[in-house]
Description:
Blueprint: H1 2-11, E1 14-17, H2 27-30, H3 36-54, E2 59-63, H4 64-68, H5 71-87, E3 91-98, H6 102-113, E4 121-124, H7 134-139, E5 150-156, H8 176-194, E6 203-207, H9 212-221, E7 227-229, H10 239-245, E8 251-255, H11 257-260, H12 267-275, H13 280-302
Parallel strand pairs: 1-2, 1-8, 2-3, 3-4, 4-5, 5-6, 6-7, 7-8
Helix pairs in contact: 3-5, 3-13, 9-10, 10-13
Amino acid sequence: MELLQEAAVKNGPLCVGLDTAPSYIPDAVLKDYKSPAEAVLAYNTQIISRIAAEKTACCCKIQIAYYEAMGIEGLIVYAKTIQAVHNAGLIAISDIKRGDIADTAKAYAHAHFSGEFETDIITVNPYMGFDTLAPFTEYCKPNATKTGKGMFVLLRTSNPGMVDIEQQELKNGRRVLDTVGAELERLNAQFKLLYPEQSCSPVGAVVGCTEENDAKALRAEYPDLFFLIPGYGAQGGAARIAATLLQNAGGTVNSSRGILCAWKKIPELAEKAQSGNITMADIADAAGSASASAKRELLCAKK
């Protein structure tokens, strides 16, 4: 998490979401590959290459559901995508949103912090109780041979249905999400005691940028937590709201469809897709340009 915080300062706060569905790739491009999964890997690899070369993003977020939907081949592409992110010198966030009890949580932690699916940071769902976080925090502790892992815990998500649970008021007058935030602060303080030389806790929070007042309140309430910020772009979150969440300890702002489907907003490429003349390089170039534009917009909003 500390390395991600540094990268966000150096390369800008954009996180490129590789939530890549085959439907985001034009049919004319898909037909050049043996399978949709193979096309997804080629698209991911080209996007990663462009953002790494142009330094337009600090990390990539890979949403595992899109790869699970493609079966075994999709999970192989998922693993290869994480490796491609690492090979490019970027940090990989695996958006897996796991949350389960005891030995099951240990198995999830082992699966995603080691072996073929090994990643740098994962997303975790705390709503089965805070004991579900413990197996993941064990991997967040650095040792003599390895950098510690990190995790973003769901705090205030960007979907409309978050009001059903996260915003519910408790008897003490606080919301459910405030209880989660208090636990994250407790973990943060615990890690500061263990590793006082670190500038950033390995435990961050997912905070959506779809509602301005909530964003301001949560940034003020948790100044020391590094945020993963969904909702920007296709989900309607404004750059100015994201910029609010980037204050204090900072954060990284995810954009997925806005980058992956950027080619659809370019009339020339839309025409090429309709005529069957569009190429993988065309759509990857559009994604690269979109990431550069997103970085500029976020940096301007942050000033």
